[in-house]
Specification:
Structural class: mainly alpha
Shape: elongated
Largest sheet: 2 strands, antiparallel
Radius of gyration: 35 Å
Strand content: under 5%
Strand order of the largest sheet: 1-2
Number of strands: 2
Number of helices: 2
Order of helices and strands: EEHH
Oligomer: single chain
Helix content: 55-70%
Length: 101
């Protein structure tokens, strides 16, 4: 508190209620939170939680997309190589002075 222009005994006046009220605004901006909803903690031997299953599904989809583009790129490279090889062999046959018929 400021008394007579000097700083004397500054003590925080924030209570737990004030902190919760302050944080409540951010929680509302983030989409809220259901009362009584606790995050699941993994229990040994229980398996995967719902959050972990969803993460694995997302990763599987992402890996599938990468594999699709990788295979598509390999097919494009192979097709281009075959086309170039055909063009080179047809150029050699056209330049050959002796024609076998």
């Amino acid at each position: 508190m400021i008394l007579n222009g000097t700083l004397n005994n500054i003590q925080p006046t924030t209570t737990e209620f004030d902190i919760k009220l302050f944080l409540c605004r951010f929680q509302a901006l983030a989409g809220g939170h259901e009362e009584g909803h606790a995050h699941e903690e993994p229990v040994p031997g229980k398996g995967l939680t719902d959050e972990q299953v969803n993460v694995f599904k997302g990763l599987t989809a992402l890996i599938g997309i990468f594999i699709f583009f990788f295979i598509e790129r390999i097919m494009t490279i192979v097709t281009d190589l075959k086309r170039k090889r055909r063009e080179v062999s047809s150029d050699i046959l056209q330049r050959c002075p002796v024609h076998f018929e």
